[in-house]
Amino acid sequence: MVYPPAPWNLQGYAVQTLQLVDVARVRPLVPSELEIVSLLPGKTLGGIYISSYGLGSVMEYNELIVVSAIANYAGKWGAWISHIYVDNPNSVAGGREIWGLPKELATFSWEGSDSVKAAPLGYRVTVRQENRQLCSLNYSKQTLALPLPFSGKVFSANRSNLLLFKGEFKSRIGLIRGQLEVAEESPFASLNLGQPLLTLGCEDMRFTAGVPQIVGNRAAEFSY
Hints:
- This protein has helices at 23-26, 89-99, and strands spanning 8-22, 35-36, 43-53, 61-73, 76-86, 103-105, 107-111, 123-129, 132-139, 146-157, 161-176, 178-182, 198-209, 213-217.
- It is mainly β.
- The radius of gyration is 17 Å and the shape is globular.
- The model has no long low-confidence stretch (mean pLDDT 94).
- InterPro entries: Acetoacetate_decarboxylase, ADC_dom_sf, NDX1-like.
- Its EC number is 4.1.1.4.
């Protein structure tokens, strides 16, 4: 496989949902070294991120990220990604080998346009892996959007180390309506993700996935 070294600079469009996730449900999916941060009693913050990276990116592909928790390790905070899917084999290889992310292949179907109503809210993206559906997100057209920069940290893990990397966004971000459907056969159905508290549309997005840093050692090998 051929993929560029980190950092990766990507451009395109994304939809992000924010949901509360039961800590008890996500605990088996998070390395024991990480403390899950509770925003409410028994609840952490998670969500679904679906993006399409196009011209101007180091690599063109679609991506589904399942953020299942906010975690803490030695005073460092970051999101934990339990599941991640893309439609480019080189992205799978780079994600696994550079960042220790559990990328798998899937297919993405984007429907809807300003003139065609393809879903209850106008737009829909569906992600499938082989003959099973992973999830479907219906979302509305973005209207009012503000140019906002944003950065956050993400934990990941390889065979022996805990890693932390920074993601930096620049995008026109606005609130939109979103309806999430997670199939019963989906690998992340156990998270019981409900309807989003918030759904954000990110237009003219520029995203940089930074170089991962080792922040700790694994006491035992962790398998996603």
